[in-house]
């Protein structure tokens, strides 16, 4: 049965709320800890790494349990319905840090609520990803669903990545007030998706295999395991950029005060302006990436998107430090186009690989596939702030409790390289792996 427009678009709606947390963990936490709570960068990196590392442990468990869940609402809905308020509450608590505590206590407060939010995120994201493999087995419908997902995800990223810093300003207390304005999006969009897709096709029969047998079936799908690794490498590159982007806006970019971009910077600030440009590029590129996937194949379109991303990061390296936001605004639109391919195309590819295992074994283990799919991303997201923190600490980066402080030339150069050349090299490795390892594994699997 073909999915309706409302079901395809409705499935994507949840990623607006999910996107809010993605921004919080990738763009805001590290800068908030080091710039307003006085946490040394290496310690902040380790703290975020450990929280996200704990989240990795829970993924296989939630995926396995959601596959085996039996309820009148299906296997996935109960997990997402409960996970959404836990996620929203954790996000708000992270930034409502009481005044008067030392940096160790500040870090402990943030870590506690960060862990709570990641538990809620896992309960939502694993079943959500599994739905892509259950609702349809038609590749074009999955591409359309993923395009809608990316549009709504980009709006969520924009709400959290542009609106929160703009509302927060350069104050610690401002962040708490700002997240209160976007947290309701988490509940409304996730619960809204559950309502809009309530009549969509789903596999209600629970899986019966043991945990070990299920894991073996998933890992035995070689194209899927290869794609997980390569997408994790891509995510590591993007997450390193995200973790340091706000620091770049504070230390490597001067505000412009002329022309339309200058007016926008005066209103939103450099970080929010550049992030908005990035989102514009990502949203505008969704339909072209769907069309290019149909023309070149999903793998060919992904390779083209990665190549574009690499080139743009190299140009951004040459443009930094920048005395004006205008050129960077154009470059961030182009970076958003490359990011659109990174976010859309692999998410349309991996449900097709679920079908290979289901057709051979008969086991409906979409939750297990979703768990491993997110595993690679969460490992990358956990490692990114740690890598950035260690690089900056080695270069002598100075933490602060009062905003921007003077940094050495070596520290600023380390930030510049970390946000451009390092992720470009990681994306180049992922591109090479897609063209060789993944292509070969897929050919052998379907032969």
Automatic annotation (TrEMBL):
InterPro entries on file: MFS_2, MFS_trans_sf
Transmembrane is among the record's keywords: yes
Keywords: Membrane, Sugar transport, Transmembrane, Transmembrane helix, Transport
Name of this protein: Putative GPH family sugar transporter
Gene3D superfamilies (UniProt xref): MFS general substrate transporter like domains (1.20.1250.20)
Lineage, broadest ranks: Bacteria, Pseudomonadati, Pseudomonadota, Alphaproteobacteria, Rhodobacterales
Keyword DNA damage listed: no
A GO cellular component annotation in the UniProt record: plasma membrane
Signal peptide start-end: none
PANTHER family tied to this protein: MAJOR FACILITATOR SUPERFAMILY (MFS) PROFILE DOMAIN-CONTAINING PROTEIN, MAJOR FACILITATOR SUPERFAMILY DOMAIN-CONTAINING PROTEIN
Family to which this protein belongs: Belongs to the sodium:galactoside symporter (TC 2.A.2) family.
TM ranges: 12-37, 43-65, 77-97, 109-130, 150-168, 174-196, 227-254, 260-284, 296-319, 325-342, 379-397, 417-438
GO molecular function, one term: symporter activity
A biological process from GO: carbohydrate transport
